[in-house]
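Annex B. Sample input.
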Amino acid sequence: MGGVQRSGRVGVATLVLALLALLAVARSTVVMIHLGIAFRDEVDPVSAPLSYYVFVDGGGQLFASAAVALALAAVALLVGVARAGVRMTGWPTVLFAIWALSLVLAALFPADESARIETVGGWVHQFAGGGVLLMFSLAGLAAAPRLAECPAWRSAVPTVRVLSIGAAAFAAAYLMSRLDDLVPGIFGTVDVGGILQRMVLAFDVAVLGALSVHLLRVSWVAVRSGAPGPAGARMTPRS
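Annex B, continued. Sample output.
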């Protein structure tokens, strides 16, 4: 016999979650752009890490709020997509959760203002920063096959995959650029670590935005039709 293995409820709740995710992504993006423009003389966007905004007057709280907003967007989106019927249990949820937690930890524990890591908080920031750079692209790639299982979400799969691969490529480039710390001058005199970090985050934000817009579209159609109900259900054999 055939049966529905997974279904979801798409309606007002998922619409609210999509809007929350979009607003959080928008706020974080605006704040990050503002930081890049307002403090371009104090923090070089090409070479300086994103976290260095905490060392300029007025930049710390803005940076922390942007990081927390992105973490909130990821959680809201994860709940909304799962509620809409996408099977997000397992690796997608774990990886998205690690990424969101890494953002919060990176905001709560600033980097050490020195060439070397000297404090426990500095080590926490270092590992959290690694989670921010690496986990989201893995989460996006893990989520793509789950999205492909649901007809209503298949159109979003290519975008998620391409942007996640882009984030992974820039993350790999950033890790390679850090070889200069071990072998000074291996990549010349220009440090591009800062811009590579920003590109990774930009691709991550693009995935969040694309999925939030898709969830908003699916939810709005359901609300307008007045018949919110199972979405993305898939038929699989069941004994």
